[in-house]
Queue: 4 jobs
Job 1
Amino acid sequence: MQLTRRLGFLVITGSLEAQNSRVAIKSSLEEAIDSWDSSTRLSPLYGLGEDQLTADEVLQTANAICFLGCDFPESLLPLPEDVRLWAVTLGIFNIIVYSKNKKALAAFAKQVHREKNLQYEIWFLDNQKQITDVKHPPLTRKQEPESVFPSAGAGPPVESPAQEKDIHQSLARMASKVESLPSDLRTGVSEYCTLMASSWARAAQARPVLKEELLKPIHDYACRELDKITKQPNDMYLAIDAFTNINAGLSRFCAQTLSGISPIHQTECHFWIHSLLGTGVGNLALYNFAKFVSSRMESLNLPGRLETKFNEESLDYLTKVSNEFWLKNHCQDVSPSLGQEQPTPLITYFSSRDGFHCGHATASAPLASLGACNAPQWSLMAMTHEICHRIVDAVLIKLYPNPATEEGKARITAWEARKNNQVSAQKPTLRDQMDAFLLATLAYMSAVDGSSADTKNVEFAEKTSAAFRNWESKPEDLLERWQHEVEEIMVHALDFLYCYGQDTDQYVRVVWNALSVIPELPDNKIEDLVIRTLCAVLTKEISNNENGKQVVRKKVIDGLLKLSSNDCIERALELLNSDEHWNQQIKYKIDARENLVKLVVGYLYWKDAEVKIRGGDEKQSQYSSLGSELILPTPLDNPLRLVEACANSSDPDEVASVLLLYRLAFLADAPGR
């Protein structure tokens, strides 16, 4: 069964209450808009195989149409004689079947609901295609036995009424405390209570497994954030930030993933080209992809491994060790000394405003990715960079001294003592050495960015030592000024190593195509991104003392030349091809940041961990030529490699993108599967 083309748009107008709700097929968006009124809603339909009938001809022969979801259409086969498969959609009701025989269609829908636990909604039509009646299962869920037919729609057994009541009791208790909260926090908590109640109720109907897998951990996180206020009132604005982030995710989760559920007329999607049935399949695809990458990365427990190493004695002055030191895998065989806190799952959604972004509890992709994720500029591969921010954030909590804490102040005091040659009686630990290494690197970054000529053209260890000794401002100034840049360099390096398998061309293709759709990037931003790209690729050339940076420069230039030219890429090439700018600026900025690259290579990366995330090289052949078959002979066990293989089209293609989203939603470690 092949996904072949867009059939047109399914459009409804009018209202059920006024008994004038009518169904139509519009062949194009232009045709749909030409007859638009205030009640119009629509969603695109996608064809399976080469049906001899047009979508409009199908509608004219149908006396009833039934929306089913959420699963692969093959799960319904074989169909009864009087029931026909019509189309698929991107909504949580993703399968549409039709029949001339209303009773036969109703009986089939009830059977599928009973045996496969798929939801349905039937529209009965008269000869003018006006909806005369609507049928769907009761919207209040009762305890049911687990389906004997395993499928994506089945999920775990529906919870008992007592379990169902707990979430509402918890939300009610939270709501009862709103008036006692600081006034700045009340609106956010009130909004959260209603959003979570709505999300829970809708998920119970449309995708029950998401309650335990996503919504319950999010609610636990919200409760912890609220509890902190009673113990640490000064953290109120952190709580406001947390609830703002959660609410932004949940509102889109309801309006996108869980829109278009029964009753369809009352649950519109705010992405208006999908206003009738929503974008549930696309959101599930994004959720599965983000969950796969984040869970694999988080399972390495890099912060815990660093914590173990930090407590070891170390006589190595890290600014002076050889490059061979950094090529060793210092954390591979380390057992984390502390259990890792269960990471907060990510509420995923699409947003033109947010684009690719990852918060503490949310992850977003551009709306354009719904219809163009087969092309590198809108590929979901760009999401890996955002997920790596979560990983590096957790690492920096251990690595980066925080002047606002007592522990951070003590580390800074120890650093200043070492700077002033006040030797401690205790042997230094790796944490002591790493603090000196990090702060010396930041001091040198400041010196280089100030273009001080006398700090150039000497060995790196000497330069960092000189900057270390001569830095006269407060260490807090260093830490504050460079925290964002430190994070970005480490994120780019980690992303390149783990998610792209050190494939320079693929990395440059995705990263720079994604950047190219951002309008009017200023020159200083482009130079920052050039430097970060060079630092990422430098991870492959740490051992190349003589000409490693020139090798990296050439690789990045070659990668950019393979891309379609645009203003952003042309300006990046101008910077890289200018020997004068390279020799006076870029080369020294990379020198100053090289220690951060070494830190990632030596302490945060090892090959076995990369294989755990990407799989071996033999995996790629499994995804390189999948064709347009909706169902594949073997399940796809690595969504990362699937998305990577599908990110190379020169032009966006809606049908190819929908096909990828289906595979991610149902074949790639999908909930309930």
Job 2
Amino acid sequence: MPLACGSGPPSLEPVHPALHRKSTLFVAGDRFTYAPLARINVTFARSLMRATLDTAMNASDAARAQWRAVALLPSGPRIAILGTSPTAGCGAAEDVPGAGRSFERGVGLARTCLVERSWGRHLLDYLSRHLRHTGAAPSVHIAAKNAVPASFYERCTARHLPADTHVVLLEVMTNLFGANVRTIVSLVAAVRRAAPHAAIAFVMWPSQYQLRYGGGGSGRVQMLLDAAAQAGADVVRADLLLRPLARRGALPRGAFPFKLYAQRNADLVHPSPVGHQLLGAIAARFVAKRLADAACDQLAGSSGPAANGIALPPPPLSGAVAVSSHTVPSRLWEQCFTVADQMPVLPSGSWRLVDEGDVSKAVHKLGYLSTAVGDTLRIGPLRGPTPRRCALLRVTLGYQLSAARTDLGALRISCTGCACARMYTRPERYDFDPFPFVHTDARYARNGDVTSANATVTAETDFFLLWHGDTPCYLDVLHAERDRSHVPDSTAARSASDRKAARSTSDHMAPHRARGAPHSASGRVAPHPSASASGGRQRQRHATRVRVDSLALAMANEDAIVSLGRVRVRVRVRVRVRVRVRVRVRVKVRGWVLHH
């Protein structure tokens, strides 16, 4: 039955009691049935009442039509969660406080990532209780991948979403390294292409650094809010609710039952079992409140039938969100190899397929690893859109980027049988999408986010590829030595003192020293290859490994390319004798020319 108009749940705890029963989740497209969860008595969250909870809902007016349609569904909403390691259930396998061992396989501070105990599972259980009086049975579909940027879900998004998705929740707050407003808006646009009728919301689970310093000093919270407002998406501000709990003792070291983060708050990112349940309850209350408000909107905007309790048909969803065609372009051709063993490769030398996942977390991390400088990994032949003879493609290459390892080299990317070019012309953008030379050491790559967290992640770089259907196209990835000279200097990003320091020394890391050495997560200065001449040479000799994780191809958005001034089209018309007209179109893209 359609939901009734109301003010939404007054607190995180649903009116209907919990039932000790199994739950069914869809994980990566497969159906799983899990045993009942041992609930945690989160007593310190009882102070989060309606007024406080409503302030954490950053609702977009542009999404009201989608929520109205979802509120009229007789079978309950179909919710898809796209997220990172918190969505994968990292931190949820620890013992439940006050309930002994939560399940037979986990004891103490287990580091296993269990989606069956994640916040998505709690979302399903809590939301089912919120909607029990309506007879609606929500379903939850989860897609999660550890240590990937938010842009990971921008490619081949439809693979991660079920058909006819009603609500999409994006959990990417902790992995916004290298992101900006434009990339987040592009992520929402990709979700809309895959699920044009769905309401979209960001679920913000902050890291401890972001929670304590209001955005981590980099303005990520505000950046996400600005992007959501521009894209017409909702935001669940869990950080606003966690901050008062942190002041009450849920974060500082103390009694174990009040820890919101894993490893008794030693983990700076992943929720503890308490944090998972709390985040699931917050997200469930948000969905229930949004649906109740949508039912009120439907009642207030209708006349006659609705006033008499007769449900009206849902509004037309095709024009639900008022966004321009530039924000949500039509579906483009794309091809993704999100797992390394799916890529068409011709390995040589030391390149081999490895799984370097964390066994303690039950996380797999497949990639092609090289341990010898000079070895080349050939990827291909790459296939473009079949109806076309040629196409301009946007290529996304995923690779391991780390500040925690000291043995990482670099990649040199080239193309055979096709042409490649850098995405950006402005030098200050080179660090965002490096090409053709890519550092895999975060300190050489000048990636402050990964360096400050002392983390190891899968980073991505984008570049253009001009594909011809009549010529086999290969992507060659060479394992190269680290070389600071391959990072172009940006006059906008470097001061005169930086340039003077760089000229006065042959040290590759002089630009880093001039700006200040990066710091590790512990607060100590992270060691640089430039710590000493001998240390730099020793580190250079041991740059013995690089890893390639994924590949994605997509048709370049012509409107975006033209708007950025990357493509110039010139048409020449030559009239010859016998009334023969020859039209020659020259498309010049960053130094190479395509003739039609």
Job 3
Amino acid sequence: MEGTRVKILNDIIDWIKDQSAQKIFWLTGWAGTGKSAIAWTICSRATNDPEVVLGGSFFFSRSASSAAQRDVRCMIPTLAQVLARQSDLFSQALVDELTRDPDILHKQISVQVEKLLSRPLFALSSSPVPIVFVIDALDECSGHSTGDGDLDDDGTHRIVSDMLDALVSISNSNVYLPVKFLVTSRPETYIRDTSVSDHELSKVLRLQTVDMKQVTADIRLYIATKLLSTPRLRARFTTSDADMLAEQCDGLFIVATTALKYTFERGNDAAATRFRTMLNASRNGLSTGAAVPLDRMYTLILEDAARVNEPGGDELAAMLKLLAILLSNRMLLSVVALAELLGRPIDETRATLSRLHAVVHVPEDDGDPGLRILHASFGDYISRRAPRHIQVSNPDSHEISARAAIRVMGERLHFNIAQSHSSYEPNASTTASGITLSLEYACTQWVYHVVSLQDPSALDGMLRDIFCPRLLFWLEVMSMLGQVQRAAAMLYFIGVTVRQESSQWYHWSLMRRVGADAGTIAVFPRCQLICRFVPRGDRAECTTHIPFGAPICEQERRDLQDVCPIMFRAGLR
């Protein structure tokens, strides 16, 4: 907001324009200290400052709808592409590099930094205007190995470390490059242990070390602007209200933004009452720990939303189940899709979400995919530090999501979901209207949740009774979604992940054999039961909708009848 963080913002702009300054500015701080707001403001200022060029920006987010916005491997190509659109010189140099090495996108990130950024930037070495790239929330880039191409945490951390070291190495170039990189993140160990924390190679600002009086003054200005913005509000709030809340924020902007969202989420008429209730709940026993004021705020919001003092407790259980799915989800859901995964009416789901606006972004249209947790600190709180009665651990979140996904597949997967007139009809001529967002989520993400459980065999019964009989129906949906290769990888991945002593190991062994042949998905290599899924990229040429009369041997028939009995009842012989 205008008038806040003035010194920090001016220092960053001065650093960008200083040719002799380090190439990297690492802005680090705890969750909620305002790093992303500063990054956004710098982007805005650079766009409007004729003495600075915003080369590109990349804002990582755990809750992003696009997997690419979580994947560190997409960052360098994105920044190069954005700058190429602005500079013909850079664009031509980049084309030359890609011509010499067309496989660069599949190489190590240090090589990408050199060939997609460093070398093409030589073409701009005489530019009088500095170029700044902004990289926000680097600690929120993707993790978890799921068989669909994502990285595990260790792999992500290695790439981040290599990338930061490669960016810092640009400072050692023999040719002057008019480029700067502003990087924001939490002070995670794998980031601190790189060259980015070396004060000789990078400029480092730790927001937790900024003068607390100045931070509190900025927060107070932000709060006062919101509370006293209209004559009507000024009749209900005073400057003392802004002072009291600012003091309790303990230097965290996220406490102020969350508190104000809570205050106004039920309209201006109820705002004053909710504000004073919140202050009274936060005033007693407030310590100076960085997480304490935010945790108290989150606790108040959840207990108020769940109406924990009312008899029954059904609303609390429903709310925690809803939050579990949002915290562990892999793609943005709509209110309708969330309701279907929960097995609740849409209006009840919308009512629960309406009480969580302070921590959850809820789209206005029930059909729009856009549900997301507003800040990563809330996920940390509810999974680790929340009181036991409102805590949802990560394993619990994944189990709730896995059960919801398997149940939706059981309810919605059926024979010939594409309504094809022929087993060999191309996908392009069929319709995916029967594949709802909840079914798409269930079909594409169930493996991720199952393998994230401490004991995947806990879901053996559901998978045996619900998924296994509908295996071919699931493959049909995956083909319609253009996810043939991913389907093979998912089956192979779960086949090698579940414990061998599982009572259903026989079924998973069969599924591993299904996924082992990624080129032609067939239940067995000699049995082209599911037509020839000939992938073209990630699209299959056609989805076979269970061709009758497929030649299979007696042993394969028995195996398939054991795994997919519904297919045989549907007419497969």
Job 4
Amino acid sequence: MENSLQSFPYKSLAKGTSEIRLIILEPGDFEEPVRSHLQVVKLDHRPDYEALSYVWGSCDDRKSISLNGMEFAVTTNLFIALRYLRRQDKPRTVWIDAVCINQADASERGEQVARMGDIYRQATKVVIWVGEDIMDPTWKGSMCASQIFSHLHDLLYIDDTEDCSQEEPLFDPRDWTRSLVAFVRRPWFSRMWIIQESIAHVDAEIMCGRASMPWLPFLFGVEKSVEAMRLTVHASSMLNEIMSNVMTLQTSLINWYEWKGKSLNTKEIATCLARLLFILGGRFDCSDPRDRLYAIVGLVPGATGALASANLCVDYTRPPADVFRDLAIFLLTERSSLDILAGYGVGPEEWDSDALDGKPSWVPTWGRNPESTIPPILLDRITNETDVNCQSAEFRFSDDKNTLFLRGVTVGEIASLGEEINFQSLLPLKFGQEGVRAWEGRFRRWEQRILQSPALKQKYESSKDARTAWKHALLHGEDDGVLKTQHFCYDVMTGNFDLSTVGEEYRQLLVKEVADFVSFAQYGLVNKLPFVLSTGNIGIAEGVDHLEIGDLVCVFPGATIPFILRPLDDCYIFLGACYMQDFVTQDKLSDFLTGKDITEFALV
């Protein structure tokens, strides 16, 4: 929930009641000054109103409207939205957070934010305002919003059984792709709060300038267009990132319909919250870090009450570090699984942030870029509850709740480090054969650095075995056809398979597979830091900004993936999670733990 510096003589709402404010937009032409007034109503009385979902925009860029006969400053983006929303012939009643909540009153703000799920659900309509119908020159698409909406409608409702292969396409496929990509890159699609606002009401519409379309057909029309887009986008490696927010909205919608109306116990509530945090973490923006929790509470039935029992009411007076700590304690205690510690945003770089001052290293804040492979693995285990069916976690907390004591086993110390793989190290992105050659060089360089580690002799008798282990760490196992293809393409690119030994037709097919693999690598192999342990094990840390020689990799009962710790005097700093082929399944973890002496680690 964005914070405003607006000063206005609000009349206080009655605490502990269902009172909310509504803004009534008085009729007027587009260019006329915006005039409005506030009305206090009780949500329990089911008043008629619409709810607006939008992007605040910069608080430094403001324009004035008339509110209750007084000048009231709103952001430029909201000012433009109000001009489009206002009717010419009759008033329009809307709920708008920036106006209807006294943003200067933290207590009221918390109480109203906790009610936002009900506010959006009980509205007669939710209007999703994404901005004026102005094309983004960055993507060079020429289609306006009404054309995009019309084409999505046709795409969604076309009869898939009809043979349309002989028909001339209505739009140039490349122009369609550029136009739609530019549309979903609008700021609205990156807001954390849109999750709750867009899925809470079945009668929502997306509005761009004067053009509008029902929200659900838009959402699933975009999904149907993705396959065609893959055939037309040169930079296909970026497509996953570009469309990820829209696809995540669909996933959240499916989850909400799955949970809606159910009576969930506390453990089930904790599981639902953990799923949402892993699904959403890092993909959406919010100016207040606490909103990573507050914006999703309304999506899980019973979550408000369960979290209140854990001292997690929506409260903007509490320090963010305390909110995230108590959230971690709630999830750990209710689920007896440690996998949530691998949540995004657990790096020591956050200690320098004033907003998170004092946050223990083991407390996840779910704010890291999600382009990594460990979170999807953990999400799958949380969804299927295989993480809570493993050995029970052994943990306790200090009296001040800032130290987490975990019982586990050290696998080994980090003996050598590979080259950090991040997006900056991959720039400039190259495509076609030039891109293939660039990745061939990277793969060889990364591999050579890892295979030079003397510690590998502790585990592998031959360089071939060590190379296979490295490949499994980088690309993960070969459990399905896709992974086997990736391993094969890696061998081709590193000179371990000779393309000249196959026929021309098969060779052309392999060239295409390699090109597709490079497209995957552009986004699928980022945020990784390879290492070799003193035991010879090869691993990949993900989402960890910095590793040092001597850091420890440990395995804990109740965790389905190894963690990395840094010794600090008589305690440890939690750095994050890692992928190691030797510990990829629960059976392998259990086998390793069997018969080992368990040690207690104090995480601060």
